[in-house]
Design goal:
With 796 residues, this protein is an alpha+beta fold. 47% of the residues lie in helices and 18% in strands. The chain has 24 helices and 24 strands. The strands form four sheets. Strands 1, 2, 3, 6, 7, 8, 9, 10, 11, 12 and 13 form an eleven-stranded mixed β-sheet that branches. Strands 16, 17, 18, 19, 20, 21 and 22 form a seven-stranded mixed β-sheet that branches. A four-stranded antiparallel β-sheet has the order 15-23-14-24. Strand 1 (44-53) and strand 2 form a beta hairpin.
């Protein structure tokens, strides 16, 4: 109570720092907890595949429908396997008289429940998916469709062009959110319309349960044998490739690997993941930020505690004269310090409780304050006050308690070099703050670059209507009806969009009818209509678009510049590419009529791969280029037309730029979080600087009075008091710059297309830090400089 200002600054600064630390700790622990709820998590592995053929690289979490079962048959280390298939992406499920579009749907084997811990509320999961037309649903889904969790024996109707009745054979508990998949429906694998028995088609997420004690890295060596025994013989049926050695010698690759279940969320960011994953780099970054903020807050606390302790020298002297022993003085200082930190911790927990809902919305989490009681965080809550309190209280406890009372009371005490220690701590604080400022600038510049870079197509004012396939024969009439509207410039029907949330299909092609390891290459093949390029604003580099005037265009292809480069023709127009037909030895040829300029159809984290556009009906989406001024009227007409053509079926639409932005929600979320904590870190540092400048101004009151009497100006005194802090901030900037450059350079390697880190980013961070520090210290400096010198000297 005697030192209200310092107590408030000390407790508030540390409480904010501790609350930031706790929030980030909750976030990091949540990221690290994914899939660990599974009882057999330490033995579950997913098969990944990496393919390079003709210069095109593919990395995906998929394998063939046969791989799991032959691995179990051939290798005793495999205890069990399961497959998940969600190529359709969504299903229409009937509730009452209307259908609902459900996106969390998949087909699975019954062995899914032998491997993953998905406990049943009702029914037997061991056999639940053995029969066709069976489905396992989650508890919330059962309540949604039947009003009760007791739904076994009831039926659900779906509409995938043909209506199907599925019998509910089991109800499981809702899948925890910290899972790399979060399906609400598991349909029987026997309802998948698929050409079974292929080793070269990769469409299934396959998981292996290895027996205890199996080294998964050692087991991976068996994949070469698998390829030679099963994959190569199938490849030989439609190519001239004789062996994997020949395939690799030509610069190609086909490799399989295993990834532990608990690493999928943070270490796997491949195409066709079930959910957008996290990033272990962000875990490291946030862990560092949490530690930095805690260090800044603790430095503040220690700085101000040691600064104020010198004013208590006389108190120590009097206590010792009155008979207090050193042991009691040490105990007093340490208890005071620990109690201050305990009070800060209590306030920090209160802050966490209040701001956690807001933090959850920013971080896209569902964390609760109960998580603070986890076996990792609870010891921190208990131990941190003692560690910080003892460190902060150690200087006054051991240094001041050693004073000789006679020297203290006579005013002969020399306080040593505690000021040097405080200077070092201020440098550490602002080094951390400047690094956070630089990181925030770089992240936001990269996000801005992503938003504004020329990606090869026009994503603005493109309306996307989903699930147009449900209209069946009305898909084309729907498109034609919308095109009649004022403000609709063009429209196209296709299941393939230049954003990662749409359909993808790749196949192997060759430059000649007979494919071998040198002339073959893997390429995306999209089915589009005549108006696709116009609607998305894609530009042709050579040749022409598909045209109704050319009947032969059904056997034509438009390739992108990457595919043209792989083919190596000086002018690819008029050349042919080939792919294998359904029958052995059958080859289908396509005439190249155009080359479209490269456009980024995946995230900017990936290079533009080879792409072929084929004229074919595909009605997953209806896309319309519209005039922004007419959007309200267009949307009303779309809704009325849909209801007329598809009564009872749900209408879902979006704009292409929203889907584009969704590819970078993770980076945008990280940017917001880092910005928030950077501001808080700077605020905490400024609180400490304010406290120190207040203390120094008090210590130099007599000096300031003398200088004013001798004619010193207010400006000169302000410069004198602020100069020391400006030098410390400058030193911090010199230290922070190379460290921040190294850290952000590593982060940018996540992006194939990225900004350059420029000098002005560091200069801006330095100017901001200096300005903030100057503004903080100047307040107390000006206040001290304006004080009446007569009063200052009389007081002293």
């Amino acid at each position: 109570m005697k030192n209200k200002t310092f107590s408030i600054i000390n407790i508030t600064g540390l409480a904010i720092g501790l609350s930031c630390f706790l929030l980030i700790a909750l976030y990091v622990l949540d990221e690290l907890s994914f899939d660990k709820f599974n009882d057999k998590a330490d033995r579950i592995y997913r098969i990944n595949a990496a393919l390079r053929f003709g210069g095109a690289d593919l990395n995906f979490p998929l394998s063939s429908d046969m791989m799991g079962q032959v691995l179990k048959k051939d290798y005793p280390q495999v205890e069990d396997y399961t497959r998940i298939y969600n190529s359709n992406g969504s299903k229409l499920v009937k509730k009452g008289t209307e259908f609902i579009t459900e996106y969390n749907v998949a087909h699975a084997d019954s062995t899914l429940f032998n491997i993953f811990t998905l406990p049943a509320i009702e029914g037997d999961t061991k056999t639940a998916l053995n029969e066709p037309n069976s489905v396992v649903i989650t508890e919330k889904t059962a309540n949604k469709y039947f009003g009760t969790s007791h739904a076994v024996g009831k039926t659900l109707e779906t509409d995938d062009n043909t209506k199907t009745l599925y019998k509910v054979t089991a109800v499981i508990k809702d899948i925890p959110l910290n899972s790399h998949f979060n399906f609400d429906f598991f349909f029987s694998m026997k309802n998948v319309d698929y050409q079974w028995g292929q080793f070269t088609s990769h469409n299934f997420h396959t998981y292996l349960l290895l027996k205890k004690g199996t080294d998964y890295k050692a087991f991976e060596k068996n994949f070469d044998t698998y390829v030679d025994k099963y994959v190569i013989p199938e490849i030989k049926t439609f190519t001239q490739i004789k062996s994997m050695a020949e395939f690799k010698k030509a610069g190609n690759m086909l490799e399989y690997s295993l990834i532990p279940l608990t690493e999928i969320h943070l270490y796997s960011n491949r195409q066709y993941e079930f959910l957008p994953g996290g990033n272990i780099q962000y875990v490291y970054i946030f862990s560092a930020v949490a530690i930095f903020i805690l260090i800044i807050a603790c430095i503040n606390f220690m700085n101000l505690t040691t600064a104020r302790s010198s004013n208590r020298a006389r108190e120590v002297g009097i206590r010792k004269v009155l008979g207090t022993v050193r042991k009691d003085l040490i105990k007093q200082f340490l208890i005071e310090s620990v109690l201050m930190v305990v009070l800060s911790m209590v306030i920090a927990i209160g802050i966490c409780y209040l701001v956690l809902p807001l933090f959850n919305s920013v971080a896209d989490k569902t964390m609760t304050v109960r998580s603070l009681l986890s076996p990792i965080i609870l010891p921190l809550l208990i131990g941190l006050p003692f560690v910080v309190g003892l460190l902060a209280g150690s200087y006054p406890a051991f240094f001041l308690s050693a004073f000789k009372p006679i020297e203290v009371l006579k005013g002969k005490l020399k306080l040593g070099k505690s000021g040097s220690l405080r200077s070092v701590l201020v440098v550490v604080q602002f080094t951390t703050s400047i690094m956070l400022i630089i990181g925030t600038i770089v992240i936001y510049r990269q996000l801005h670059y992503i938003q504004t870079r020329d990606i090869g197509f026009n994503k603005d004012q493109v309306l996307i209507v989903n699930n147009v396939y449900t209209l069946n024969n009305n898909a084309v009439p729907f498109k034609q009806e919308i095109l009649k509207m004022a403000g609709v410039k063009s429209g196209t029907l296709s299941g393939y969009l230049p954003v990662s949330s749409s359909s993808r299909s790749d196949n192997v092609f060759s430059k000649s009818p007979v494919m071998d390891s040198k002339n073959g290459f893997d390429m995306q093949n999209w089915r589009i209509d005549y108006d696709y390029l116009q609607t998305f604003g894609m530009q042709l580099a050579k040749g022409r678009n598909f045209s109704k005037e050319y009947g032969s265009d059904s056997g034509a292809v438009i390739i992108n510049e990457t595919a043209a480069q792989i083919l190596g023709y000086k002018d690819p127009i008029g050349q042919k590419i080939y792919r294998s037909g359904d029958a052995p030895g059958q080859e289908i040829s396509y005439n190249i009529i155009g080359v479209v300029k490269n456009f980024n159809y995946e995230s900017l984290k990936q290079t533009v791969g080879p792409l072929g556009l084929f004229l074919h009906s595909s009605s997953g989406f209806a896309s319309f280029k519209v005039n922004a001024a007419y959007v309200p009227e267009i949307l009303k007409h779309v809704e009325s037309t849909w209801k007329a053509m598809a009564p009872g079926l749900p209408l879902k639409y979006r704009f292409l730029d929203d889907s584009f932005n969704e590819m970078y929600t993770g980076e945008q979320r990280i940017g917001k979080i880092i910005l928030i904590f950077s501001v808080l870190a700077i605020l905490i540092a400024c609180l400490g600087l304010f406290g120190l400048s207040t203390f120094i101004a008090e210590q130099r009151t007599k000096e300031i009075g003398v200088r004013k009497v001798l004619g010193a100006s207010v400006q000169g005194i302000v410069q004198l008091l602020s100069k020391e802090f400006m030098i410390l901030v400058a030193v911090a900037f010199i230290i922070a710059t190379p460290v921040a450059w190294w850290g952000m350079s590593k982060w940018l390697t996540n992006f194939v297309y990225r900004i350059n880190i420029e000098w002005w980013m560091f200069a801006l961070a330095g100017v901001l830090a200096l300005s903030i520090a100057l503004a903080t210290t100047s307040f107390q400096a000006i206040k001290a400089a304006l004080m009446n010198p007569v009063k200052s000297l009389r007081t002293e």
